[in-house]
Structures are given as C-alpha cells and as structure tokens.
Design a protein that fits this description.
This protein has 85 residues and is an all-beta fold. The chain contains no helices and seven strands. The protein has a five-stranded mixed β-sheet, with no helix packed on it. A hairpin with a 2-residue loop joins strand 1 (2-7) and strand 2 (10-17). It is globular. It starts with a strand and ends in a 6-residue tail after the last strand.
C-alpha cells in the first residue's frame, strides 16, 4: 500500500507493508501499539489532510516505523506484520 502526502513543496511517500522495513531505511520506532478496536489510523499530524485506516487483530500489535532520513524523511515505511489484506 502506498500513500502520498503533499505538503508545502515536498512529497512524503508512506509505504505500509506486512514485511520490512524497506532496504536503506533506518528504524525510528519498533514496539507495540494497543489497538483495542483493531483499526489503527495513519494520518498527518492533526489528521485533517488525510487518514488511512488499517485492519489488524484487536488487542496489541507489533509495528516498525522506518525512514530514509529520520530528521527530514521523504520516504517512511510502516511495517505491521499482522495487517489484514
């Protein structure tokens, strides 16, 4: 799944996958999220430009977030091994 968000004069590419992180990206977070309803959301900082909902098993799910350049990412990878397709 590929999401693109355009802000100001640059574009950020967000890849959501059950495998990863993509080659050449640094892991910026690896841990678990509590997802009681099984529907985590990916969105911009305030959630008013875009929101994408995923389906995972309800409860706690593992997640890895990676970026090409953590300080000013142009590519972000979100790995959720338990994602439903």
């Amino acid at each position: 799944m590929l999401l693109r968000q355009r802000k100001l004069r640059f574009e950020v590419e967000i890849r959501v996958s059950s495998e990863g992180p993509p080659p050449g990206e640094s892991v910026v977070f690896a841990g678990v999220l509590a997802v009681p309803d099984g529907v985590p959301e990916i969105g911009d900082l305030v959630g008013d430009d875009f929101v994408h909902r995923l389906r995972v098993p309800a409860g706690v799910t593992e997640i890895v977030v990676s970026a090409d350049v953590p300080e000013e990412a142009v590519r972000v990878g979100i790995t959720v091994p338990t994602i439903f397709r």
